[in-house]
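User: Can you recover a sequence for this backbone? Please restate the input before giving your answer.

Assistant: Of course. Working from this structure:
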């Protein structure tokens, strides 16, 4: 019996999928189809898939052409499957031409011409609602959001606002956007989602106006250093039934959520201390002090909660009087945190979570990572956890927003308003002391 295997996501099953399965079957007597698993798609950055794994498998089966369906769960699985299932021929569409030649050492490899003028991507664009995204910036944007949005179906970055129209036009032309504005009201009328990346002083007003015009908003943390202003924004978002999300990629990362779950799930015992260090060295564009500080504070709050008892601050400034280094010692009833933030000092970036039965260590750029290590049982065992992580992470945030909108939710479950409120209050305390 000749065995054939082929793979795909098979989202929004279409004629092109049917054709390739039919032609694949002609290469043998028994056809196995590998359908990509949900987490595999997410890990490889394909966030646009609309049908669930079950639906996609059902659709493949319904063709009546397939003898067996398997789930493709990791990179490199194809080789293993070919060996395990004793495959004679591997079939794939011509969009992958040449990419699977290395499998020829195990079986025949056949590239079949794709059916023209149809694809899941095209169908997703035709069927689903496309949210128009507008960027609010006060400098030349680096294009990260535009690049990231391309990986999420259901959003399209269309316009840019900047008070300086020359900057807005430059961004529009560089990233092939449709429109550039220096009139905020007109800009707001042209979009559904506003992504606000501006200096702190301008943020509150920008967010408020967008929410009042019933636009969904993603904005940098903190929205404002004034607690009552931040609370007001939450209120407006709730009243107008629109989403207001923090641009805090950390809480959307799979690796961070996994370590959070492990730390809280008693895998390293009772939590004794969280140490988080972050220095500006690793950022291409020198970030402001608060932009750095919010990351360790967010990690601490997610890991240890919002109800800390005391916070001791040590702040250092450079000759110009700007804050350059800060140590925060935060005491909780049964645990504590030690946070180190520096814009000029050089030190190792790391996040260490210490429990009485082990520890979790995330080295280097821990706020943007797919990798961590867990030590327990007297440190004899080091377990390494690795998750693929694509791009800057903003795509995961956009994806979360789309899921929220689909479910008619306006509040993210990744960073609760109460958590954001405590984060803002700690940031406010740092700047307050700075003014003394
Ligand atoms: N395929 C094809 N003709 C098409 C579309 C897909 O022959 N018009 C083939 C692909 O080459 C692949 C298989 O069908 O071998 C599964 O493809 P998949 O990636 O699931 O479908 P696409 O429509 O290409 O999806 P997307 O637009 O998300 O990339």
């Amino acid at each position: 019996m000749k065995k054939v295997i082929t793979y795909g996501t098979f989202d929004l099953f279409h004629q092109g999928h049917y054709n390739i399965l039919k032609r694949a079957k002609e290469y043998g007597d028994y056809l196995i189809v590998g359908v990509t698993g949900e987490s595999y798609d997410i890990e490889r950055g394909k966030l646009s898939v609309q049908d669930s794994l079950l639906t996609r498998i059902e659709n493949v089966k319904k063709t009546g052409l397939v003898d067996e369906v398997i789930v493709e769960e990791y990179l490199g699985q194809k080789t293993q499957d070919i060996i395990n299932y004793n495959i004679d021929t591997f079939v794939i569409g011509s969009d992958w031409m040449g990419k699977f030649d290395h499998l020829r050492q195990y079986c025949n490899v056949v590239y079949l011409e794709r059916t023209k003028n149809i694809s899941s991507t095209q169908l997703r664009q035709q069927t689903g609602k496309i949210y128009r995204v507008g960027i609010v910036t006060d400098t030349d944007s680096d294009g990260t959001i535009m690049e990231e949005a391309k990986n999420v179906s259901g959003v399209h970055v269309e316009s840019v606002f900047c008070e300086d129209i020359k900057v807005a036009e430059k961004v529009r032309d560089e990233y092939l956007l449709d429109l550039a504005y220096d009139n905020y009201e007109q800009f707001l009328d042209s979009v559904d989602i506003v992504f606000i990346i501006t200096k702190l002083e301008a943020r509150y007003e920008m967010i408020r106006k967008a929410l009042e015009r019933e636009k969904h908003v993603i904005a940098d943390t903190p929205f404002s250093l004034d607690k009552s202003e931040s609370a007001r924004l939450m209120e407006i978002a709730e009243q107008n039934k629109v989403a207001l999300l923090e641009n805090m990629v950390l809480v959307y990362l799979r690796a961070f959520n996994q370590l959070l779950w492990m730390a809280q799930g008693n895998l390293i015992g009772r939590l004794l201390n969280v140490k988080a260090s972050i220095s500006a060295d690793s950022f291409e564009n020198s970030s402001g002090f608060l932009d750095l500080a919010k990351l360790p504070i967010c990690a601490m709050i997610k890991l240890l909660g919002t109800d800390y008892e005391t916070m001791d601050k040590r702040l250092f400034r450079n000759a110009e009087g700007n804050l350059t280094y800060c140590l925060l010692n935060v005491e909780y009833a049964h645990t504590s945190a030690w946070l180190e933030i520096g814009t000029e000092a050089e030190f190792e970036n790391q996040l260490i979570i210490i429990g009485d039965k082990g520890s979790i260590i995330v080295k280097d750029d821990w706020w943007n990572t797919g990798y961590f290590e867990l030590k327990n049982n007297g440190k004899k065992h080091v377990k390494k956890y690795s998750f693929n992580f694509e791009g800057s992470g903003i795509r995961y945030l956009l994806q979360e927003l789309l899921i929220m909108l689909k479910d008619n939710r306006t509040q993210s479950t990744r960073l609760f308003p109460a958590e954001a409120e405590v984060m803002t209050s700690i940031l406010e305390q740092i700047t307050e002391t700075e003014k003394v």
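That completes the design. Residues 417-435 form the longest helix (19 residues).
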